[in-house]
Amino acid sequence: MTTIHIETDRFFIDGTPTYAGCHFREEPIEGLLLNSRMIQATFDDENPETVHRWAYPDSGTWDATRNVIEALPIYRDHGLLAVTLNFQGGSPEGYSKEQPYPPSAGPLRRTHTLRFGVVCGQRSRWRRRSRPLARA
Predict the structure, then answer these.
(1) Contact of 36 with 83, CB cutoff 8 Å
(2) Virtual torsion, Cα 56, 60, 61, 65, nearest 10 deg
(3) Domain spans of the chain?
(4) From first to last of its 136 residues, what are the pLDDT tens digits of the chain?
(5) Cα dist. 125→4, 8, 40, 60, 61 in Å?
(6) CA atoms of 91 and 39, how far apart (whole Å)
(7) How far apart are CA 108 and CA 116, in angstroms?
């Protein structure tokens, strides 16, 4: 089992500082914990007008958890040691010109995700999707 601990301001994995001996632009990064903030890792697009855009060719459906878990080894191969799961949500199109949600919908797109309290309650499938991500 992997162990993680912090000494002062340095991260260690299995007793070894992260990025041991590594530098970026001549600055040491040993002991830092570089990570990626995975906004969409547990959310599904519930907009019936756009959900079909994200379907996998092999299954015909979108699976946010599958997408992240399958990519983790690639991220690791490129030096990413951690990801931050996030329940913020956002537009599935990023900063595209045409947004499937109106700006007034708020950060969790009220009409489709119904705020964080519901995510943890009635919409617990999002919470369930976070479990395999945490284990991966």
Answers:
(1) yes
(2) -40
(3) 1-32, 34-135
(4) 889 999 999 999 999 999 999 999 999 999 999 988 877 677 667 677 778 888 889 999 877 778 788 889 999 999 999 988 776 656 666 666 665 555 544 444 444 444 445 545 545 666 677 777 777 7
(5) 28, 37, 14, 19, 16
(6) 10
(7) 8
